[in-house]
């Protein structure tokens, strides 16, 4: 019997687009960590922290997951894949079709249709040096964060159930970086415009936990956009800075990429 050959896959790297900027907390931000070994002074809901500096940060996985979820919903995708277990069961869209704007941008893993590696690399976002200095002077009893007391009420008995939640205070600034891999030139404009749209959508939604209770309102400011074609890596050619003006992100980057 003739051995079945795998279909060849072409995954070129034609360049990278590097977006960097700031995530500014307009209200307190809570991105939680495991309670095990991380609770400070009996805190019910601690934030995730860098184990070396003890400063809070935004994991790239949390930011990427939120952006993907918002794009799935904005594009009215079916949540057709089940993940997690127990009380942590989640549903998400994952079709693994090359034509799917969500899966080609954020990646997909499917036993039936194969894997689509993500075109986005979302780095962990760390506090700016200015915010570290400002938050180190807080008198809240917690390093770099505040302690917010909340109450949930039993609708029948009116019994209060107090709880505490740790938050990064409003005004704190995180520095972020997102790297987009250019695989198909014809997708470049569309992919980056979808990324820009979902970053704007996040500003009117919430990042982290407790968004419906006032947490997690953020402002996202893109400060710099760089295009590094593959010749930058292979031949040492210069990177190109994209001037952000009246055009949308995708159009601005495409002009630089095709004109260079």
From TrEMBL:
The keyword Hydrolase applies. One of its GO terms (molecular function) is endonuclease activity. Keywords: Antiviral defense, Endonuclease, Hydrolase, Nuclease, RNA-binding. Residues 23-219 form the CRISPR type III-associated protein domain. GO terms for biological process: defense response to virus. It holds the Pfam family RAMPs. Belongs to the CRISPR-associated Csm3 family. This is CRISPR system Cms endoribonuclease Csm3. It comes from Thermovirga lienii (strain ATCC BAA-1197 / DSM 17291 / Cas60314).
């Amino acid at each position: 019997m003739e051995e079945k050959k795998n279909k060849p896959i072409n995954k070129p790297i034609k360049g990278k687009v590097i977006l960097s900027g700031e995530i500014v907390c307009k209200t307190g931000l809570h991105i939680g960590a495991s309670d095990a070994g991380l609770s400070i002074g009996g805190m019910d809901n601690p934030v995730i922290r860098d184990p070396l500096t003890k400063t809070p940060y935004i994991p790239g996985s949390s930011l990427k997951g939120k952006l993907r979820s918002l794009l799935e919903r904005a594009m009215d995708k079916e949540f057709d894949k089940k993940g997690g277990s127990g009380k942590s069961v989640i549903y998400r869209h994952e079709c693994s079709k090359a034509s799917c704007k969500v899966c080609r941008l954020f990646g997909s893993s499917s036993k039936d249709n194969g894997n689509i590696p993500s075109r986005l690399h979302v780095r962990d976002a760390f506090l700016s040096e200015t915010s570290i200095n400002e938050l180190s002077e807080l008198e809240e009893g917690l390093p770099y964060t505040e302690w917010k007391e909340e109450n949930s009420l039993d609708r029948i008995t009116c019994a209060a159930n107090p709880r505490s939640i740790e938050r990064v205070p409003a005004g704190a600034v995180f520095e972020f970086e997102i790297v987009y891999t250019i695989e198909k030139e014809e997708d470049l404009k569309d992919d980056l415009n979808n990324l820009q749209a979902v970053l704007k959508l996040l500003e009117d939604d919430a990042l982290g936990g407790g968004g419906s209770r006032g947490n997690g309102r953020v402002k996202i400011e893109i400060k710099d956009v760089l295009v590094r074609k593959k010749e930058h890596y292979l031949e040492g050619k210069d990177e190109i800075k994209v001037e952000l003006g009246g055009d949308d992100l995708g159009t601005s980057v495409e002009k630089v990429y095709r004109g260079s």
